[in-house]
Amino acid sequence: MKKKILPVVLTLGIAASLAVPCAGYAASTTEKIDQQLTQLKKMKAQAQQKANDAQNQITKVQTEKDQATKDMNTLVNQVNEASKKLTKLNEEIDQVSTALADNAKQLDEAVARVETRDNMLKSRVRLMYMNGFVSYMDVVLSATSFSDFLNRIEALKSIVNQDKEILVANKKDKETVAQKKADTEQQLEKVKTLYADADALRDDLQAKEKAKEVKIASLTKQEKVLEDISEESDKQITQLAKQEADLQAKKRAASNAKSPFTYSGGKLGYPLAVQAPLTSDFTNRINPVTGRSESHKGIDLGAPKGTDILAAENGSVIYASWMNGYGNCVIVDHGNGLWTVYGHIMNDGIYVKVGDVVKRGQKIAGVGSTGQSTGNHLHFEVRKNEVPTDPKPFLR
Q1: How far apart are CA 16 and CA 385, in angstroms?
Q2: Which Gene3D superfamilies does this one have (predicted)?
Q3: How many domains, in total, are found in the chain?
Q4: What does the pLDDT average to over 194-218?
Q5: What is the pLDDT of residues 46-75, one digit of tens each?
Q6: pLDDT confidence of 346, banded at 50, 70, 90?
């Protein structure tokens, strides 16, 4: 009986000695993969930080660019107002110039009248000088009759009054025309000064407008560089997520863990808790935020903020954080090279973390409008071997 027990014990001992190295190998492989995963997480965190820094700088540049654009629009309006003012002043100058010409004509006419009156007075003085001075009393006393006396009195009154009128009219003409000329010239000088000021203002505004245009061009260039940096960081993050997913698969294989992936083809689950309208298709389009042409890598489904976003299929979360353009974003790996991407998630609206295993139809996030978005909606992508493909056939 003992002889039979001994071979059995030896056999069990040999089996145990063989089993221990296998278990040790599996543990060693898992530890090595965990170390690689830790290193990948560090690298991903660094790439994420770089992307976040670039995004923060982009936001700052865009804010500065928006303000510069507003300032330039204000300057353009001021230039237009200055131009209107200049046009009005030109019209005023034309009116004043016309008035000056009229005044000059009136002055010439008044001078001619004064000269005519002066000639009349000089003619009388000349006659008096040639014929000898005769006083008004001599004229009156030399009357031959009473009626002649009255006639001479009236004649003398007429002469005196005429002389007075001539002198008064001359004085009035000279004063009026001189004052009018002075007032008009003063007005013209004032308008010319205003015109010069407005002209200088327009030149200054145009110079500022040009400076703003240069600044906006510089900020646009800077924005493009930062977007390239951010986009490159996003690509790096995606690549690191892919490596992390591959390592997780190796880890499951090493520990004989059950794969979370069951997708082998067919229809995916609808990614929202409610049916929503398609607001942007998988096509080339003009980005509503940047205004540039782009290839839209997924479809947009319009839904109210907070609407539940559901996993389209069983899988493992390989990304759950901010990503340039996408805002808050979740990527789920479903196996066989198939990923689904969920973008523009509301702030504090990501309900899963990297490494979580999710079920088809499970709530993973809430609809929002983060990143490059003009309103609440879900940006949904399907990627096959990391290449975006039209999601619609997967949802039919």
Answers
A1: 43
A2: 6.10.250.3150, Glucose Permease (Domain IIA)
A3: 2
A4: 78
A5: 877 877 787 788 778 778 878 877 877 787
A6: very high
266 and 211 within one domain = no
- The three-state secondary structure class of 367 is strand
Q: For residue 368, what is the DSSP state?
A: B
Euclidean distance between CA atoms 123 and 100, whole angstroms: 34
Write out pLDDT tens, residues 2-15: 444 334 333 434 34
Coil, helix or strand at residue 314? coil
353 found inside a domain:
yes
Cβ of 351: how many Cβ atoms within 10 Å? 17
Q: Are 365 and 350 in contact (CB under 8 A)?
A: yes
Measured CA to CA, the distance from residue 182 to residue 63 in angstroms comes to 56
Give the three-class secondary structure for 276. coil
- 291 pLDDT tier (thresholds 50, 70, 90): low
Q: Rounded to whole angstroms, how far apart are CA atoms 356 and 48? A: 19
* Structural domain containing residue 283: 258-395
Strand, coil or helix: 316: strand
Higher-confidence position of 76 and 311: 311
Structure token digits, residue 354: 């990297």
